[in-house]
Amino acid sequence: MRHQVSLRIGPVGFRVGSAWRAPVAALAALYAGYPAPEDGIADFTVRLEPTRPWRRWTRPSIAIRGDFELPDAAPMALAHGLLAAEMGMNLQMALGQRFWLLLHAATVEKDGRALILTGESGAGKSTLAALLGERGWRLMGDEFALLDPASGRLHAFPRAISLKNGAIDVMAAEVDAARFGPLLEGTPKGAIRHLRPNAEAIRRMDEPARPALLLFPRFGQAAAARAVGQAETFMRLTQASTNYVALGRAGFDALTRLVATPAAAIDYPDTATALDLVEALWTGASEWRAAA
Amino acid sequence: MSALRLLVRALRDPESLGAPDWQALITAARAEQLLGSLAFRLESRRVPARVAQILAAARRDADHRRTRALWEAEMARRALAPLGIPVILLKGTAFHAANLEAARGRSVGDLDILVPRESIAAAEEALIGAGWERVKPADGYDDLYYRRWMHELPPLIHRERDRMIDVHHTILPPTARPTPDAAALVADSVALASGLRVLCPADMVIHAAAHLFADGDLAGGLRNLWDIDRLLRQFDSPGFRAVLAERAGRHQLRGAVAHALRLAARLYGSPVDPNLAGRWRPSDRLFEARLLARNGWGQARRPLLRFAFYVRSHWLRMPPLMLARHLWVKATR
């Protein structure tokens, strides 16, 4: 293709080709400092193509294509080309990943142990993980957690954090402006701005971690926490995984092992409360582990 | 070397690969739905670590698809068993159920079955009773079109498992010029231990050839042709060649079968009966070019050639006046 960029996020290599220069340039800038795919071979290919040949020039319109595609995906404006590339990469993972057990979850790490945050869209896991990643934790990923079915360890997938609407200002107050991508206004999800994980998250992205605590956050309620049993955790995680069924026995075994991790559901009214809850539960889990 | 030539070579002779453009090979194989087949072909060959992991994932995926396809066939068997009619699995599911070489890594999408024409209404009713639902509105043009002019029911989809089933009563639309002997397809089918049936090997080859050269527009043709290659290699013998020639004639599909044999021999080096295949023709080059029209990014190439084959597929499927009406309805809705 005319323009292209290849990069590796954790253990997964991507190759993104585009009919236009801008989306690829924006992607390369956002992912500055990321390595190339191992052996130069990407797991997945994404293509940003004109929806019709003439739509390269007249009213440019991007079709997100690649190894795995959604037949009825809505075309994107060229101004949102970076978002199109990100969506294309996400789509490959969601539809095509068959090596790692994929959990729709944010993950942060401390002392080789991983805290997994999973919940419905809008639960605030991206923002929480982004904040934790700036406050003494290593960000492993804000969107997908990769569980190795063979070892039971989590692998980092620290792609750019996709901040929406209010979360953009929260993080702008916290980190260096140079780590932000362009502000994308008027997307189907409102305003979106991508944030590159910090240097430590990128430098250490090949270090896996043991799952130590699973949290199911929910925004908008009074502060509360309750322990979640293994059966409920299992059911919640099957729903959070895009490829649990496709991995067959390996997926079942991996998830059965993962539910032995302590788990809790937390409600929170604001971000500060959530961060306190997380730290308290983390300390509790560490003490529980020490006692056991 | 173009990406699909590379893919053909990798499938045909994995040892000859040397140090290929792995990225192009993997992408092209995925786009042609042949990555699973390729992964099994390369299983014992030394490949770069990244490639090994991608191929291992592809084999795992193929295993899962196999399980799912066989389960879907079993679900259909249970739904149709009370009718006491022969239920014949077609295409990928048949290869898996009969444990043929063609099944190794073969992806399967929908479940395709064939039942005797006089039982097709009862089969549809039984499937609907067991949880399958109509995809197309029951009184729309598409539904009517299928029922009047096609060799299969309008597709049904299972409400809980979200899997599609195509129920056929023959292997070509009645409007196409050749008329396969549907009764012979059923009569000479082979029973499996489950009670389900598959076409006899010669009819499997003929069905694949009919699908490729007398019906479709060659989309996904490399995989179809790979099926044909695997079948020819597994069953080749003087006896098989004689049966294939005889049955190709009986189903009025000698032309399509000859075409398939020539291209399978050309691309995959399949063992073929030269008397049935005939000589390589200048026009075969167009078919070869169409089959190979994709690049290492997985992009479709040669739009005009593709369009020509699309038009050809409709031309084969129906007489001119009917074609005009059909395209008119599709264009104006």
Provide an overview of this structure:
The complex is a heterodimer of chains A (292) and B (333). Chain A contains eight helices and 17 strands. Chain A is of the alpha+beta class. Chain A has two domains: 3-96, no CATH class; 101-159 and 197-291, Phosphoenolpyruvate Carboxykinase, domain 3, CATH 3.90.228.20. In chain A, β10 and β11 (154-155) form a beta hairpin. In chain A, α1 (21-30) packs across α2. The model of chain A has no long low-confidence stretch (mean pLDDT 94). Chain B has 333 residues and is α/β, with parallel strands linked by helices. Chain B is built from 16 helices and seven strands. Chain B is globular. Chain A binds chain B through residues 1, 13, 15, 17, 37-43, 45, 47, 49, 65-67, 97-99, 245-248, 250, and chain B through 22-23, 26-27, 30-31, 48-51, 53-54, 56-58, 60-61, 63-64, 67, 297-299.
Label this structure with key terms.
heterodimer, A: 292 residues, alpha+beta, 2 domains, 6-stranded mixed beta sheet, 5-stranded mixed beta sheet, 30% strand, B: 333 residues, alpha/beta, 7-stranded mixed beta sheet, globular
